[in-house]
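2 proteins. here.
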Amino acid sequence: MTERSDVVALEQILQYVAQEAQRLHLSPVVVHCLRMAAFELAKANPAEDAIECRSLEAEDPSFH
């Protein structure tokens, strides 16, 4: 595994965990922090998968 694929995998895990946290009605702060972590990874790693994370920002009212 390369470092780039590790970052992409971590980004996908964070996105999944954020979705599950929201589904389980955890604190909006927790969901926001998880999504911001995925967003920051996407900015640091401008891969194709990062575009999906950036689209979450537009859909999610917890982003400011």
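next one coming up
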Amino acid sequence: MNFILVLMVASCIAPPEGGQDIPSASKPPSSSDGRLPADASKATFTPVQLKALLAEYGKLTTLSIEYSIQMRPSSPGDDGSQSGVHRRISAKSPCSLAHDSGHMSHFLDWKDDPYRQTCYFDESKETIFYHFNKAFARRPYPASSPLDGTLATEFFFVSTGIWPLQGRRFPRPTDCPYLLTEVAKSEGHDRVREALEAVDGTWCHVLVNEGKDALWIDASRGARVLKREVRASASAALMARYTLAGHKELLPGVWCPMKIRSEQFDFDASTPEGRKRHVIDSEAVLSSSSINFPDENSFHLTPEAGWLEYNMEDVRARPIQAVSGGEELLDDMVSWIAKYRGPTGKTQNSYNIYISYVISVAFLVLLIELALRSRKRFQY
């Protein structure tokens, strides 16, 4: 059974639509570099005023979102399989977080991904649930500890700078103030470019932390961040560009983008041309976003019949059955294999071939495990 856990645990990669952009009161003329002509409107907000608008994001204490993310066709990481990741996230200040993630493709439903897992956090512990093999594990995890694994760079939080958990350490992609509420207090973000700049037809003030960070903000209704560029502290080379669209107003002046493009660059390359090269070019689309108070049950796992509990502190320890009963696991595996194999008996692409192999091995291990248990019962 330990072997099954090893097979089931994998890092989450990422998959996709929703929301509608707010039309600007006046559309700026287009230009090749996104800037307005020399006679364009001048910036009217100061850094202090823009940061006061960003401080409003501190009022966000609950958040529930669902999104999918996939590589754009032009991305170096795109293999043409249309695969990606689907995620559901619920957060409630100060510390409660639930993160459900699974791979998907044009033929594989993310809920059926054998690597799907959900992480639950409260003020003192983490619980990880592996959906396919109905197993879970718990470990102490204080809110002061940084998130690890996929959560250390969770796409939504990093790309938007939104973080509703006031009592938990947040993902930090750079060593500079990053969250919108941090930027609101930052002494480094001390300059606004003289002229407004256009992002997708909307005039924006550009708040700058020179050589490190720049945010394009539509200040007409609160602080709607439409673009952000993050640079390496040592070289000022462009690390990442996020383009945000389709915003939904969660609270007065607090906006959640429903479409996010993430461009990651080879900022450590030895040549200027190399540093402009995309490493990843992906796009996420949110299907829902809400600040409705999440049910407390969203942040806790209640074991059901047949579920196994693993010891995360000792991977060699045999799992224990947390709740007696539950004999449908093998049937579920058989149903999965039948569902995701084509009529000729062959899987539909290389990813599914690999997954089917994993499931077949896991199925065999379960049969051996059941046989050994039956033999022991017979001997006694």
